Amino acid sequence: MATRKNRERAKFLLLNLLKSFFYLALLVGLFLLFRHFSTEEQRYAWFGSIYDNTVLVMGMFVLSEILFGIIPPEVFMLWSLETASIGPYFLSIGILSVISYGAGFLNFTLGRWVRDKDWISRTRFPRLRRYMRLFEKYGGYLVVVASITPLPFSAISLLSGVGGLHPRTYLLLSLFRILRYFVYASILTGIAGL
């Protein structure tokens, strides 16, 4: 029984990792195409007012991380790589990863405060119900998978709080979020150097 459960967990992780690398490859491909087929002046004309406004971009990042990852964090990693607006690249990745980790913990704490699983069944967001079923099936393992794959980390964090995961366990498992940022950042620096 335990072996079957481990195989199921491994399959779940592998499937989500494959999705993750697919989305990363798609984003990087679009980024490289955009960089190749546009001049610096054109890119600035299209995105300059946003691109150069560090406070606005960081505000968008924080809101996105709190509101269930509306914008993929890799977009902000690429922005950081291109602009160095918040410091050297790996320092900025550290800042972004800590913000993401903190946003997840904020949602986890909110979930612990709510602690009412019934509101999930009443919500109009079927994805939340689906993720709650996944949490009930995988428990804290889902936090690890959400930390390193495209599953919405903040939503899973919220549901982990609702589901009663112990805060210390949550904080340890969600450290994989920081690891994800640095692994992806390493991949992006390698690709951007092409």
TrEMBL record:
Q: Which organism is it from?
A: Cyclobacterium xiamenense
Membrane-traversing stretches: 12-34, 54-77, 89-110, 138-159, 171-192
Kindly state which keywords UniProt assigns to this record, in alphabetical order. Answer: Membrane, Transmembrane, Transmembrane helix
Source lineage: Bacteria, Pseudomonadati, Bacteroidota, Cytophagia, Cytophagales
Name listed for the protein in its UniProt record:
SNARE associated Golgi protein
One Pfam family hit: VTT_dom
Q: Which InterPro entries match?
A: VTT_dom (IPR032816)
What is the top-level taxon of the source organism?
A: Bacteria
Report whether Transmembrane helix shows up as a keyword of the record. yes
Tell me the ranges covered by the VTT domain, including all copies: 89-187
